[in-house]
Write a structure and sequence with these properties.
Strand order of the largest sheet: 1-2-3
Number of helices: 0
Shape: globular
Order of helices and strands: EEEEEEEE
Number of strands: 8
Length: about 90
């Protein structure tokens, strides 16, 4: 995945995880449910994670809310790099 991008990853139990690479070699993961209404956010584009439903915007490095209507950030999920893989911590 190129630096500055991300993707939604399928998890067991029909769950999904948003994995992003805000900077080269730095990987973060978030629950992709927007804290405003619960719809899934889009992977980062133009340096921001956006919710397509109401336009909330989040920082891909921290998940912090940049623009509402959401009043809280995305929930981070701990991951660690193990060789070429990312695994839940």
């Amino acid at each position: 995945m190129p630096s500055g991008s991300g993707l939604l990853v399928d998890m067991p139990g029909n769950a999904q995880l948003l994995v992003v690479q805000p900077r080269s070699g730095e990987f973060r993961a978030f629950n992709p449910s927007c804290p405003h209404v619960g719809s899934f956010v889009n992977p980062p584009a133009g340096g921001v994670i956006t919710c397509p439903l109401h336009g909330s915007a989040f920082d891909p490095s921290s998940g912090a809310v940049r623009k509402g209507p959401a009043t809280s950030g995305l929930v981070e999920v701990a991951v660690v790099r193990s060789g070429d893989d990312l695994v839940l911590a």
